[in-house]
Amino acid sequence: MFLYGHRNNDVYHLAQGDCNMELRDVVGRSSPVRIPPNSTASDALVSMMENKTDYLLVDRAGPHDAYGIVTRWDLVEGIAKGKDLTKTPVLDLARKPLVVMNNLDLDVRWVAKKMANEGVSKIAVFDKEDFLGFISDIDIMKAVAAKSASKKEGKG
To answer: Model-level pTM greater than 0.90?
Structure first.
């Protein structure tokens, strides 16, 4: 995986797999925010604004149901289609099933590969049944950049 075009700096080496950073090191940097499946799209919008987030975990309706995600973009699409968010069930806009990871020991490059393979920018992370939060493409890039900066400082 190649994130940046500078072959002569540490970011290139980290992007080539010298990262040695686990999923557990990156997840949990954002507070997990959930919404019940029987909520309206308007409830989702209010929750996003109150929690200063662009996405929510949509809980399962039962033990055999899948988790989902609703993003600000999903809400924008609903508005564009003329939906009344106060009457539209969040499940009508949410995407299910959710892409999930639960191996906290996994190197983040595998998380990035999963994102690329699935065509998503966020993955929900669970530890058994406990929702720990989402990891996003931005979280991975920030972690790689921070690791690069700390490596450079250590060379000084």
So the answer is: no
